[in-house]
């Protein structure tokens, strides 16, 4: 991406408002690509240097009050841009607008908010959209220190010497198309991009969870009657369970895991944990769901990976969360 050396103060200030969340500190990128904390506020003059390619800076995603102004999906793989474009399409179908930026090893998918909100809320609402193998920022519900750091867009990466563009579309042959060609044009483009109103998003999110559950139940009624799923009682609402074991006992593993993995009549499908398979994808179905020997126990296994577990283990692996955070999300009704 070409630079443009007549950036207006207004453009720089808008850029700062959009991306710089923590006001008291930032980090500078070294020639080896690593970052060092600076220990002072990031000024407009610093940002001007960043946008001109003289220095490259990173910002902390959570501010001093535990709030964030955006979330970022980070895919570090050769097909990272196309993966994130698919995530973008799924989000857009629910009225959640996201914007794609190329990166050194893949891409970043940004969702901007109309107003700052607690990092824990942002993670609860949007982390379920994050596929396995993709990182999600912020990584913390709250930060007692500095928390997650991310490179500010449009700066020259010190290790590669390149600027990475924002992507406005994909061509028919699957190649990304730049949203703009100069820094100035990109700043103008960013000013025009839609943000998500958190209050609107909450209602949309709840509607989506409810709608998806009803649609799944309707579309799978015939399949349930013809598959091993009919050997297990229908699950109760997760919010009625007082313990993790009780919740696991209430779940039909074929129904729950079947929302994430397309299973055949035998309960067999492609493993969703592609990082444990050759070339990052299960090409020959090696994932099986089965009826547990006793309620709440092991009910799935990947023969290639050599691992399995119960429905709760599956969700922990799928969302990349520890047990405490996953259980908290279940209790809050945040699992589709």
Got a strand count? 14
Strand order across the largest sheet: 7-4-6-5-9-10
Cα Rg: 22 Å
Ends distance = 40 Å
* Main beta sheet strand tally, sense and closure: 6 strands, antiparallel
The level of helicity is 25-40%
- Tally of helical runs: 11
What spatial form do the alpha-carbon principal axes imply?
globular
Describe, in plain words, how this protein is organized in 3D.
With 336 residues, the protein is α+β, with helices and mostly antiparallel strands. Helices cover 32% and strands 18% of the residues. The chain has helices at residues 9-19, 44-52, 80-92, 119-126, 183-191, 198-219, 221-225, 244-250, 253-258, 311-319, 323-331; strands spanning 27-29, 35-37, 57-60, 67-75, 99-102, 107-118, 135-137, 149-151, 166-170, 176-178, 268-269, 287-289, 300-302, 307-309. α1 (9-19) packs across α2 (44-52). The relative contact order is 0.11. The model is unreliable at 205-239 (pLDDT under 50).
Furnish the topology, listing elements before pairings.
Layout (H helix, E strand, L loop, with lengths): L8 H11 L7 E3 L5 E3 L6 H9 L4 E4 L6 E9 L4 H13 L6 E4 L4 E12 H8 L8 E3 L11 E3 L14 E5 L5 E3 L4 H9 L6 H22 L1 H5 L18 H7 L2 H6 L9 E2 L17 E3 L10 E3 L4 E3 L1 H9 L3 H9 L5
Antiparallel strand pairs: 1-2, 1-3, 3-8, 4-6, 4-7, 5-6, 5-9, 9-10, 11-12, 12-13, 13-14
Helix pairs in contact: 1-2, 1-5
Question: Keyphrases for this structure?
Answer:
14 strands, 336 residues, 6-stranded antiparallel β-sheet, alpha+beta, 4-stranded antiparallel β-sheet, globular
The gist of it:
This protein is an alpha+beta fold and 336 residues long. It has helices at residues 9-19, 44-52, 80-92, 119-126, 183-191, 198-219, 221-225, 244-250, 253-258, 311-319, 323-331; strands at residues 27-29, 35-37, 57-60, 67-75, 99-102, 107-118, 135-137, 149-151, 166-170, 176-178, 268-269, 287-289, 300-302, 307-309.
């Amino acid at each position: 991406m070409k630079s443009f050396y007549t950036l207006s103060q207004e453009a720089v200030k808008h850029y700062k408002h959009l991306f710089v969340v923590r006001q008291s500190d930032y980090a500078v990128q070294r020639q080896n690509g690593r970052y060092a904390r600076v220990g002072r506020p990031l000024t407009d003059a610093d940002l001007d240097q960043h946008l001109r390619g003289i220095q490259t800076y990173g910002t902390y995603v959570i501010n001093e009050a535990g709030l964030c102004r955006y979330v970022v999906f980070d895919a570090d793989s050769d097909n990272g841009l196309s993966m994130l474009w698919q995530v973008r399409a799924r989000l857009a179908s629910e009225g959640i607008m996201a914007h794609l930026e190329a990166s050194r090893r893949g891409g970043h998918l940004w969702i901007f908010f109309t107003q700052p909100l607690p990092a824990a809320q942002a993670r609860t609402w949007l982390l379920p959209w994050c596929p396995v193998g993709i990182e999600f920022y912020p990584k913390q519900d709250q930060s007692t220190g500095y928390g997650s750091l991310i490179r500010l867009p449009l700066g020259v990466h010190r290790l590669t010497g390149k600027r990475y563009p924002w992507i406005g579309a994909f061509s028919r042959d699957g190649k990304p198309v730049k949203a703009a060609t100069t820094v100035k044009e990109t700043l103008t483009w960013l000013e025009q991009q839609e943000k998500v109103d958190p209050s609107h998003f909450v209602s949309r999110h709840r509607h989506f969870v409810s709608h998806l559950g009803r649609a799944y139940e309707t579309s799978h009624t015939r399949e349930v009657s013809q598959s091993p799923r009919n050997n297990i009682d229908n699950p109760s609402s997760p919010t009625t369970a007082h313990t993790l074991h009780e919740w696991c006992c209430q779940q039909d593993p074929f129904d729950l895991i079947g929302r994430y993995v397309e299973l055949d009549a035998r309960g067999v499908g492609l493993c969703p944990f592609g990082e444990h398979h050759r070339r990052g994808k299960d090409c020959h179905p090696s994932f099986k769901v089965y009826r547990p020997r006793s309620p709440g126990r092991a009910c799935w296994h990947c023969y290639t990976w050599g691992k399995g577990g119960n429905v709760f283990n599956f969700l922990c692996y799928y969302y990349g969360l520890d047990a405490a955070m996953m259980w908290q999300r279940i209790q809050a009704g945040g699992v589709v």
